[in-house]
Input
Amino acid sequence: MPTALITGSNRGLGLEWVRQLADAGWQVHATCRRPADAGDLQQLALKHAGIRVHRLDVTREDELTALTQEIRTAGIDLLINNAGVYFERWDKDPLGSIEYAAWEETLRVNTLGAVRVTEALVEHVARSDRRLVLAITSHMGSIAEIGGGRNYAYRSSKAALNAAMKGISLELKPRGIGVLLLHPGWVNTRMGGPDAPHHPEESVRGMRRLAEEFRLEHSGRFFRFDGSEIPW
Ligand SMILES: NC(=O)c1ccc[n+]([C@@H]2O[C@H](COP(=O)([O-])OP(=O)(O)OC[C@H]3O[C@@H](n4cnc5c(N)ncnc54)[C@H](OP(=O)(O)O)[C@@H]3O)[C@@H](O)[C@H]2O)c1
Output
């Protein structure tokens, strides 16, 4: 059975990835910052022998080292860089009241975190059959789609993630390793809020289809969960 590793899998889209892949019979390394507090994930793990829960804060090198030791030589068919932050207060903060410390934290998680995890686990991906890395980014990282001000931290963190992952896709393509940049849609999670039109089940189902249909020629491209392409 194929194996996936997911970051930020205790709630929201990450938890839904765990649920759907485990239901489909995958082995799932489900990572989260605080396993002891991850009630929904632990409940799911009780029902599926294929789920293993691991500690990982994507900003922490020491936890990443411990994780690579825990999973040892196992291959990772699908590496899902899902963990992300969005500090909504900033949405309301125009020029003049930007919080730079929070912006730095957003970059640390959304950009550096995903690249650091990918770098640490790329040899595991290389050892697998499917060899695919997903970056759960956002259409808000598209410079072409910026239609107004604010959201400077989140937008720039995802634009930088897109730039880094595009480069990584070119570096990994000769090794037969693919990279897909995926926008999940506006989804009803803690980040997306209650007004979001999409449910995690529908979003993850769409992203899974893109991962299933992946061909190496798609590597480095930026898609919505419904398969439409997003301009940079
Ligand atoms: N929902 C949307 O509408 C939407 C739209 C576009 C893109 N996205 C992207 O989709 C991804 C998932 O978002 P979501 O909607 O599921 O958000 P969410 O419900 O807020 O979940 C975010 C997840 O990221 C984890 N996380 C935060 N900081 C972390 C860190 N330093 N290390 C490891 N995990 C960390 C959280 O863990 P804790 O519980 O420990 O905080 C949580 O599991 C994100 O990358 C987000 O940017 C979402």
Remarks:
- The two ends are 35 Å apart (CA to CA).
- DSSP finds six helices and seven strands in the chain.
- Strands lie at 3-6, 27-32, 51-55, 78-81, 132-136, 178-183, 221-224.
- The first strand starts at residue 3 and ends at 6.
